[in-house]
């Protein structure tokens, strides 16, 4: 079952973007949005407002990567955040048969790495940090993971 929907901003003064167009694509994202709104150390945040251009190693074409979150803390540190299951941050395990599923997993892993490399350079250029948050990160931050 896919969990996605429109998120209603409760503290528009903290949202840096159009508060009418906030979409979550997982319960992890929705719960992280709530965390951003309720965390007194988060000064500003937005979702999918930062676009990072990248070239895919798979098709050698220019693409646009909409980063899940931008979070600016009270201490002025700014983070670009991607929320992914831990298994999607690691290369797929080799298999004896090259099934369509395995090939798709490999392509997704390569594409994600291309995006994350570009996002990391983009963040560094702006004096920010790029991070991939997994279910472990969310739990450590006190964000509900189902």
Characterize the structure shown.
With 146 residues, the chain is of the alpha+beta class. The protein has a single domain (5-140), classed as Trna Endonuclease, Chain: A, domain 1. The chain contains three helices and eight strands, in the order E-E-H-E-E-E-E-E-H-E-H. The chain has helices at residues 27-38, 100-125, 135-140; strands at 5-6, 23-24, 42-47, 51-55, 62-66, 69-73, 78-83, 129-133. Strand 7, helix 2 (100-125) and strand 8 form a beta-alpha-beta unit. The model has no long low-confidence stretch (mean pLDDT 94).
Short description:
With 146 residues, the chain is an alpha+beta fold. The chain is built from 3 helices and 8 strands, in the order E-E-H-E-E-E-E-E-H-E-H.
Task: Report how far the terminal alpha carbons are from each other.
Answer: 13 Å
What level of helicity do the residues show? Answer: 25-40%
Order of helices and strands: EEHEEEEEHEH
Instruction: Label the overall shape.
Output: globular
Regions with little confidence, pLDDT below 50 for 5+ residues: none
Kindly estimate the percentage of residues that lie in beta strands according to DSSP: 15-25%
The CATH topology annotation reads as Trna Endonuclease, Chain: A, domain 1
Q: Can you identify the CATH class?
A: Alpha Beta
| Major sheet characteristics | 4 strands, mixed
Structural class: alpha+beta
* DSSP strand count: 8
Question: How are the strands of the largest sheet arranged?
Answer: 3-6-7-8
Please state the oligomeric state of the protein chains shown.
single chain
Give the domain tally.
1
Tally of DSSP helical segments: 3
User: How large, in whole angstroms, is the Cα Rg?
Assistant: 16 Å
Task: Tell me what the CATH architecture is.
Answer: 3-Layer(aba) Sandwich
């Amino acid at each position: 079952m896919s969990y996605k929907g429109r998120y209603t901003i409760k503290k528009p003064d903290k949202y840096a973007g159009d508060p009418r167009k906030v979409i979550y694509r997982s319960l992890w994202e929705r719960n992280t949005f709530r965390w951003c709104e309720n965390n007194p150390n988060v000064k500003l945040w937005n979702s999918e407002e930062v676009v990072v251009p990248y070239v895919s190693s798979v098709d050698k074409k220019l693409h646009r990567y909409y980063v899940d979150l931008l979070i600016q803390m009270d201490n002025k540190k700014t983070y670009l955040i991607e929320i992914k299951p831990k298994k999607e941050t690691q290369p797929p395990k080799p298999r004896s048969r090259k099934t369509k599923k395995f090939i798709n997993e490999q392509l997704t892993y390569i594409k994600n790495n291309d995006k994350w490399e570009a996002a990391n350079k983009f963040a560094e250029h702006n004096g920010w940090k790029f991070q991939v948050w997994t279910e472990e990160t969310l739990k450590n931050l006190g964000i509900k993971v189902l």
